[in-house]
Design goal:
CATH class: Mainly Beta
Number of domains: 1
Number of helices: 0
CATH architecture: Beta Barrel
Strand content: over 45%
Largest sheet: 4 strands, antiparallel
Structural class: mainly beta
């Protein structure tokens, strides 16, 4: 099951997958802009705060981008 977080002004969405991948997609075209593989399931929506994207994986690792 995928979870996502939208950034309307930037026209991007961040979405996760249960296979451990985090994707950034363009909202207008659906084009994949970026991908990161955590090698562990991601089961929550990514959070965005102070210009950073934060997501935790099931193996207990917290990732911070930005």
């Amino acid at each position: 099951m995928a979870k996502s977080t939208r950034t309307p002004r930037a026209r991007r969405t961040r979405t996760t997958s249960s296979d451990g991948r985090l994707y950034v997609l363009d909202l207008d075209t659906g084009e994949k802009l970026w991908e990161f593989d955590t090698a562990a399931p991601l089961v929550a929506s990514p959070a965005i705060a102070e210009g950073r994207l934060v997501i935790g994986s099931e193996d207990g690792v917290l990732y911070c981008f930005g």
